[in-house]
Every structure is written in structure tokens, then in C-alpha cells.
Amino acid sequence: MTRRETLNRAKVAAAALALVDAEGIEALTMRRLAGELGVEAMSLYNHVKNKTDLLDTLAEQVFASVERADPGLPWADRLRITVGNLYREFSRHPAVSKTLVGDQANPTSEAALRPAEDILEALFQAGFDEKAARQALIAVHALVFGTLALSTSGYTTPPRPAVHGLDVFRRAVDPARLPHFARLVATTDADSDPTEDFDHALNLLITGLVAAAPNTGHGTRGL
Amino acid sequence: MTRRETLNRAKVAAAALALVDAEGIEALTMRRLAGELGVEAMSLYNHVKNKTDLLDTLAEQVFASVERADPGLPWADRLRITVGNLYREFSRHPAVSKTLVGDQANPTSEAALRPAEDILEALFQAGFDEKAARQALIAVHALVFGTLALSTSGYTTPPRPAVHGLDVFRRAVDPARLPHFARLVATTDADSDPTEDFDHALNLLITGLVAAAPNTGHGTRGL
DNA sequence: ACCTGAACACCGTTCAAGT
DNA sequence: ACCTGAACACCGTTCAAGT
């Protein structure tokens, strides 16, 4: 349809990202993507190894667009900002988050690992050892990608997608049997802001990290 | 192959869970599952509406098996235990976790929502309002399912599956470019215990929650 | 080097037909 | 009521053939 001059890997990746953003991951088939590029499905294999390679490239694109925090800030602020930027960037591409948690994509390029590297840098500066840093990294990743992946299904409202996740529950929940859940569902629409919810959850976690850190963010503290 | 007397919904669900536990979600096709039950694929449609219905049933089974916490405990302990039990049960069925975060399953039965109800009950007893309770519930769910989903791909070792996730990174990471990540990868095998890592992450979050809660778990505290 | 048509081995699901 | 064979409309991917 767009009938470009000649195809290359970057154009394939860009078209794929646009397609999943607009219509979700299930719209991304090799035949459909080829059609979008005015070409036959088999042409794509000249530019990507296979569909897994294509999905890895999508995730890499998003990781690479994550803004880095000012290295002059205290570690806790650097951590909060880096993770916030990671969340913000992936919240623009919720379908890509799902390929990560669904194990369909697993990018290992330097660009894809840069945010994790920055998070670890902050954690090591906080004085955590390897084990504690790994545990904190896992927690932070789980929070980012778990929140994004669950936001289009479960107990919250998605940032952008069309389907309102809570509608299912509003019909299904019996207040007599699940009173607290019903209370939550009944009051959710008014003040629901996924980004704010995420920031709050991240703050809870960082509160726990600051309490556990050998070093504070503002200089030294006796052990 | 098992050629039972007659098929029913429970038998289909049990066989499906056994299949995904043994061979992962990609092994669960209608034709394959039917073969496992000594029947043709189309027979399954007499007992489940479609594949989505089947996946919902799987998730429901796992949710329903989550043990409930002693209601006499303080809220923070109840929260920790309920979430820990949720993690433990789903860690036995990592493929089912992925259907939840991947939006392929979305169970809304009372049995499926019971753990969320218990978590909310603890949070409301802690004095959180609806908004804070929703934010905490999101954080806790993201932690559980995000950790489990990422454990078979990303930065940690899975509890059971065959593939060792870190091997990819061990080959790919350049210590000169990603020094902190390389440090993590180099030291990960020795003391890596996914359940312990999860417990630690959960404790970080609960530390943050206790600090933010209007009520303590052990009686009253002035506002 | 890049693109294509035909084909292969799969999917989930429908439908008419059997018992 | 439950099961089945054939078929439909898809998938990702291979391969030989074109330019």
C-alpha cells in the first residue's frame, strides 16, 4: 500500500511497530505486514531472520528510546527517573510489553540492556551487593512490565487501548460474595490514572529500597 | 491415548493443565489436547466454548488452589502470606501466568477473584482508601505475575523450566560496555533462588506499604 | 541482491453427518 | 447428547524460480 522505493530492515521494523501500536500484537502477521509495505510476505525474510527476530527488534527499538537520567542526581532519584522513563516509553507500546512478558521477544543488544544497566548502576551506588541488586532489578522489571501487561486485562484501566478492562468485572462481581472487590470496582472510574498508579507503586518499592540501602542518596551514613 | 470412559469439562481442564505444565503453552493445541484424551479435536467443543474458555478455566483452577491466610493475623502478615501463596501456586504453573499477563486468559469467577478479595480485605483493614488499595493491589499483582512471566525469559533463573535464561546474556553482554550488568550475570548462578528473590521483593513493597498505612497491623496508632 | 508463486505443515473453528 | 470427517480461512516458513 505504501509502495516504498526499496525495503530495508529499518523500514520493516518501523512498519511493524506502527502496526502493533495501531491494532495490537495479533494484527502482526508476516502477510499483513508485507501488505502494509506493498510487498509479498516472503520478501520480509530478506530483512529479518524470522518472526522472533522481528519481535526482538521491536522491543529493542522501545528500549533504545528510553531517556537516561542525569548522572549527577542521588541514586534513589536516578532509579526513580530511569524506571519512570522505562514505564513511560513502554506504555506507548503496550503490545511490545506483552511480547516481553510472554517470552516472544528477548532482546540482548547493548541498546536493549542500557536501561537495566543504568538501574544496576544506581543500585550498586546505593551499596547493594550483587544478590540484593539482582533482587531489586527483578522487582523493578516485574513492576514495570507486569503493570503494563496487566493494565490491558485485569484490574485497572489501560492508558490508551480501546477496551475497558473493568467492564468484565463490573458485570461479573457479586458484592455479597466479594464485597471488597466490588467496592474497588464501584469506585475505580473516577480517579483512575494508570501512570499515577504506577508512580505510586514505584514509590512504595523505592521506600522499601531506601530503608534497606547501605548508602543513602545524599552522601554518607554510618553503618 | 488415555481413552477414558466418557469426557467432561473437568477432565478436559485437568488434561490441559497437565499438558501446559509438562510442555509449555505452545504445546496446548486443540488437536494435541484431543489426542492426549484419545479423541478428535472437535469433541472438545462439546465441553469448552472455545480455546479462550479453556485458558480461563486453567487460570481459575490455579487461583482456586491458592491457600487462604489465617484471618486472625495482622493485616501485613495476612497480605504477605496471601501473596506468597499466590506466587507459590502460580510458580507451579508458569505457563498459566503467561496467559494472564499475555491477556489470553481473563477469569472473572468468584474462585478466581478470591485471592484478590483477600488482599483487598487486608488493605482496607490497614486503613487504605479505595484508590490506595487499588494502587497496592496493582503493585502486588504486577510483582507476582511480572516476576513469574519474566523468570522464564529475562534476568533470572526460572524455578523449574529447562531453559536457563541467563545463558543468552552470558554470551551477549560486553563487560566493557555494560559493566554492572556483566557483574550481575557473572555472580548470579551461585545464590540464585527465584522464590527467595520474590520474597525479598515482596518484603520491600510491604515495607513501603506499612510505612504508608493509616493503621498498623498490631492494634492502633494515632494519626 | 531482492522479490515472488506455489507449496508444506500447521492452527482454531464450523458444519453436516453420524451414533 | 456426544463424537467425527471434511472443509474453511488462516498461520510461519521453505524452496525453486524469476529479475
CATH fold-type name of the largest domain in chain A:
Tetracycline Repressor, domain 2
User: Roughly how many Å is the radius of gyration of chain A?
Assistant: 21 Å
> Could you say what the CATH architecture of the largest domain in chain A is?
Orthogonal Bundle
| Protein structure class of chain A | mainly alpha
| Chain pair forming the biggest interface | A-B, 69 and 69 residues
Q: Which SSEs are present, and which pair or pack?
A:
Two copies of one chain form a homodimer.
Chain A: H1 9-23, H2 30-36, H3 51-64, H4 75-91, H5 94-101, H6 110-125, H7 130-151, H8 166-172, H9 179-186, H10 194-212
Helix pairs in contact in A: 1-3, 3-5, 3-6, 4-6, 4-7, 4-10, 5-7, 6-7, 7-10
The structure holds a DNA duplex (19 and 19 nucleotides).
Report a brief summary of the structure.
Chain A is mainly α and 223 residues long. Chain A is 60% helix and 0% strand. Chain A has two domains: 1-48, Homeodomain-like (Arc Repressor Mutant, subunit A), CATH 1.10.10; 66-156 and 192-218, Orthogonal Bundle (Tetracycline Repressor, domain 2), CATH 1.10.357.
Labels describing this entry:
DNA-binding; 223 residues; Arc Repressor Mutant, subunit A; homodimer; mainly alpha; disordered C terminus; Tetracycline Repressor, domain 2
Question: How would you explain this protein's 3D organization?
Answer:
The structure is a homodimer of 223-residue chains. The first copy, chain A, has helices at residues 9-23, 30-36, 51-64, 75-91, 94-101, 110-125, 130-151, 166-172, 179-186, 194-212. Helices cover 60% and strands 0% of the residues of chain A. The longest helix of chain A is centred in the middle third of the chain and has 22 residues, at 130-151. Chain A is flat and about 55 Å long. The first copy, chain A, is built from ten helices and no strands. Chain A has 223 residues and is mainly alpha-helical. Chain A folds into two domains: 1-48, Orthogonal Bundle (Arc Repressor Mutant, subunit A); 66-156 and 192-218, Tetracycline Repressor, domain 2, CATH 1.10.357. Chains A and B meet through helix 5, helix 6, helix 7, helix 8 and helix 9 of A and helix 5, helix 6, helix 7, helix 8 and helix 9 of B. The first copy, chain A, binds a DNA duplex (19 and 19 nucleotides) through loops.
